[in-house]
């Protein structure tokens, strides 16, 4: 779901919304702006229809009085987060408030991963049961060879992300997985989120293995990938609705750099680097694709 346009004229917003509906493009209306200057936003629900909706928007802005854009009755937009329907049957709700409320609860995939990590943490005796931990390492060999994976244990590419070795370790990772992962899952859908998460996990685990060996675990590489994606989207593509406080971003980048100094002990720095790289590149590519489509 994405905000495609802001209108000073509520009537123009209603007219454009009505036209989109007639074209089969699901959209919603939201009040925005300040008391001095109220704006009406049009949000398109299906991101795959954004390119078409944007082409209609350009045509509408060039000539709102074109006969193809039929008039609709002026109707006050309700400033409430709950959904309501007027006699014309269109949906009205404050999407900004709705998204912030939704973000308080984790998505299904995010919650499943959190539960899995906590379960592994407890069953492995907080990472002290060597038999269980060894079975989830990318490899149990120290010779730099991925012999287990070569023999068919391909899950080892991903399972290190479920390992955690102390309470603060899992608390930090689960907090950010909940916050960042839920945002991505809600806005981009479970299919995208699973694919994205697996790619980050694979890249971050391989980075750490190549530069530091097989004895590592944790979700922090994935967390930094999610962080990189949300951060770049928040800066370059704000209409996608991702939120990240600038102070939090500075702390995350600062922690990333400080970890490389060794002051925090054994940290999977290369997993952080690999995950962050994937998140930044994917986020930038997505933002570039969207911004190019607007021009």
Q: Could you give the topology of this structure?
A:
Blueprint: E1 2-7, H1 10-22, E2 27-33, E3 38-44, H2 50-62, E4 84-85, E5 91-92, H3 95-102, H4 108-123, H5 130-136, H6 147-150, H7 167-188, H8 190-212, H9 220-236, H10 246-259, H11 269-294
Antiparallel strand pairs: 1-3, 2-3, 4-5
Helix pairs in contact: 4-7, 7-8, 7-9, 8-9, 8-11, 9-11
Assign the CATH topology of the largest domain. Answer: Rhomboid-like fold
Q: Can you tell me the CATH architecture of the largest domain? A: Up-down Bundle
CATH class of the largest domain reads Mainly Alpha
Given the helix and strand composition, which structural class is it?
mainly alpha
CA-to-CA gap between the ends? 20 Å
Q: Name the CATH superfamily assignment of the largest domain.
A: Rhomboid-like
Compute the number of strand runs: 5
Question: What is the C-alpha radius of gyration, as a whole number of Å?
Answer: 23 Å
Uncertain segments: 72-100
Query: Biggest sheet, strands in spatial order?
Result: 1-3-2
Helix and strand pattern: EHEEHEEHHHHHHHHH
For the largest beta-sheet, the strand count, sense and barrel status come to:
3 strands, antiparallel
Overall form? elongated
> What's the domain count?
2
How confident is the prediction overall: mean pLDDT? 84
């Amino acid at each position: 779901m994405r905000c495609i346009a802001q209108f000073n004229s509520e009537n123009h917003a209603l007219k454009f919304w009505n036209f989109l509906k007639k074209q089969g493009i699901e959209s919603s209306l939201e009040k925005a702006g300040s008391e001095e200057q109220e704006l009406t936003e049009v949000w398109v629900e299906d991101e795959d229809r954004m390119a078409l909706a944007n082409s209609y928007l350009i045509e509408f802005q060039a000539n709102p009085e074109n006969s193809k854009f039929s008039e609709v009755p002026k109707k006050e937009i309700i400033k409430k987060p709950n959904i309501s329907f007027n006699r014309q049957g269109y949906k009205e709700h404050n999407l900004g408030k709705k998204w912030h409320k939704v973000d308080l609860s984790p998505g299904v995939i995010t919650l499943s991963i959190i539960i899995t990590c906590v379960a592994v943490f407890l069953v492995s005796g907080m990472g002290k049961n060597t038999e269980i931990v060894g079975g989830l390492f990318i490899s149990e060999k120290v010779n730099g060879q991925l012999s287990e994976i070569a023999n068919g244990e391909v899950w080892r590419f991903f399972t290190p992300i479920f390992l955690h070795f102390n309470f603060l370790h899992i608390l930090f990772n689960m907090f950010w997985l909940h916050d960042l992962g839920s945002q991505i899952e809600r806005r981009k859908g479970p299919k995208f989120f699973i694919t994205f998460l697996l790619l980050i996990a694979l890249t971050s685990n391989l980075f750490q293995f190549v530069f530091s060996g097989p004895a590592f675990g944790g979700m922090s590489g994935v967390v930094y990938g999610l962080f990189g994606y949300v951060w770049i989207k928040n800066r370059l593509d704000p209409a996608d609705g991702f939120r990240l406080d600038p102070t939090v971003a500075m702390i995350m980048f600062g922690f990333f750099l400080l970890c490389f100094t060794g002051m925090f002990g054994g940290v999977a720095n290369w997993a952080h680097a690999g995950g962050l790289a994937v998140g930044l590149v994917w986020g930038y590519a997505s933002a570039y694709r969207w911004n190019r489509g607007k021009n």
